[in-house]
Specification:
Blueprint (H helix, E strand, L loop, with lengths): L3 E4 L4 H6 L2 E10 L27 E15 L2 E7 L2 E5 L5 E5 L5 E9 L1 H7 L10 E3 L4 H16 L4 H21 L7 H15 L7 H5 L6 H12 L3 H19 L4 H7 L5 H12 L3 H12 L1
Antiparallel strand pairs: 1-2, 2-7, 3-4, 3-5, 3-6, 3-7, 5-8
């Protein structure tokens, strides 16, 4: 995925809705790369020495790498991959990736009377802003959906992304409650692999190289992966790309070539060939059928 972020204007309609998103983004920070990257508005710019104070609430999810975090309510903490942390209005904080590893971060900023009420009921707190979500594929899907919905910019998307953000909050809360359940080592490794495959959806992927990140032989990995998902690793990679393309065809006006590009296919022809093999319809025909069924 390429770096992307957007700061959203908030109209009276969004305020009346009671839950609105102010910013979304994804950034990959390479080792020894300056952080944060340039281009953010002055209200969000900061450096490690000064830190910053923001209005509104934020969720930051570190999907790769590690770094440091500190706030007015917490001592300096090491942030590892799979960690979510919250930022709170009017609370000083600072964070940065480790120089040797860099990191990949997803974020969403939000506000409104509904999230303010929710965040003040003890489900989350500035004294304990961290949740170890691990390599949770559903969390990754929600952040990716959030970004793609903003990129598409369809009519009424502000309310849609507030719903996705609320779902992210619910999932993080669920993870924080049940964090010690189902802690089976092999299962966690397969879940990590599923996460890494999905995160690479827009690019090519070398499955055998990916397995080198796991303490597991390839034959065992392939067997357990198919038991868990019903697909071989390569089939799973194709499956999630086609599924994402189906969603984009249903919910956006992106043309077929743009959808092929966003889902990582090398050409529109190859994408259309695989899509028709799975669905029995060309992408444009699939879109027409789905839209007709809604009317």
């Amino acid at each position: 995925m390429k770096n992307y972020y957007k700061y959203l204007p908030v109209t009276q309609t969004e305020k009346n809705w009671g839950f609105y998103v102010t910013t979304v983004g994804y950034t990959r920070v390479n080792p020894r790369e300056k952080y944060p990257i340039k281009g953010h508005p002055k209200t969000h710019a900061f450096d490690w020495n000064k830190g910053r104070i923001l209005n509104g609430y934020y969720i930051v999810f570190i999907s790769r790498g590690k770094g440091k975090f500190e706030s007015a309510f917490t001592h300096p903490q090491v942030i590892n991959e799979g960690t979510c942390f919250f930022l709170y209005p009017n609370v000083w904080h600072r964070y940065k990736p480790d120089l040797n590893t860099g990191w990949e971060e997803y974020w969403v900023g939000f506000d409104g009377y509904y999230p303010a009420d929710l965040m003040n009921k003890g489900f989350f707190s500035p004294e304990h802003p961290f949740v170890n979500a691990g390599m949770n594929e559903l969390l990754l899907i929600l952040f990716q959906n959030l970004l793609e919905t903003v990129k598409a910019g369809s009519l009424g998307y502000h309310q849609i992304i507030s719903g996705i953000t609320l779902e992210i909050l619910g999932l993080i809360h669920m993870i924080s409650i049940h964090k010690d359940e189902g802690d089976v080592p092999d299962k966690k490794l397969i879940q990590k692999a599923m996460f890494l495959i999905r995160e690479s959806m827009g690019n090519s992927i070398d499955i055998k190289k990916l397995v080198q990140e796991l303490p597991m032989g390839y034959s065992k990995f392939r067997k357990l992966f198919k038991q868990e998902t019903g697909f071989s690793p390569h089939q799973y990679f194709i499956h999630i790309r086609i599924s994402r393309a189906e969603e984009l065809l249903r919910s956006t006006d992106l043309n077929v070539n743009e959808i092929a590009y966003q889902t990582g296919f090398e050409s529109e022809f190859y994408f259309s060939k695989l899509f028709k093999k799975k669905n029995g319809l060309a992408p444009s025909e699939y879109r027409a059928v789905k839209r007709k069924s809604r009317n």
